[in-house]
Amino acid sequence: MKRLPKPEKVQKVEELYQKMLNANALIFTEFKGLSVADLTQLRGKIRPLNAEYRVVKNTLALLAIRKIYPDKDLEKFFVGPTAITYCYGDPFGVLKALVDYAKEHELLKFKGGIIDGEVYSADEVKELAKLPPKEVLLSQVVGAISAPLSSLVWSLKWPVNKLVWTLDAIAKEKEKISINQ
Question: What is the pLDDT of residues 23-72, one digit of tens each?
Fold first, then answer.
């Protein structure tokens, strides 16, 4: 006979599910050996970036995440002590803050992450942290697109401008000639 789950656990799985559903990125870390003060400091660094860091119970978190990503192999992230960083804003700023914090506190280890539905390994997450923020990337793309267009507009305008300047010079020359006669 199968036991029914306790109502508290069902509620906790639902809470985790809602947090995961609302986040645009989930970063999985191991925090073994970090003190409560260290974790409080980490939470303080990422809170202004619209993210939260929560220690989770692996079995409950796995039940919640399977509701969102049933076809993805995520069990590897839920081995040993696990904390999830829920990113509600720009995940790259949060990643950078986590990587910087991990440099100062070597006990914080990355397990991997999910960003916009894509699963990344620990190494890939660290590499993504090196990317500039989304706004900077977008401005670089716009700049790369607009520079050739500006050159094209200038190139197309040049013959017209040259013709106008030439006609203006001819008109002025004719004006001088008519005044001198």
Answer: 999 999 998 888 899 999 999 999 999 999 999 999 999 999 999 888 88
- Answer whether residue 117 is part of any domain: yes
Phi, psi values for residue 117, rounded to 5° = 85, -5
Classified as helix, coil or strand, 87 is strand
Q: Are residues 115 and 153 in the same domain?
A: no
- Position 29 scores a pLDDT of 93
Range of the domain at 157: 134-181
Cα radius of gyration (the chain) = 29
The two beta strands, 51-56 and 25-30, are unpaired
Contact 94, 51 (CB under 8 A): yes
| Helical axes 58-68 vs 7-22, angle rounded to 10° | 50
What is the C-alpha to C-alpha distance for residues 81 and 92, in angstroms, rounded to an integer? 24
Tokens standing for 67?
């509701």
Q: Can you give the pTM of this predicted structure?
A: 0.71
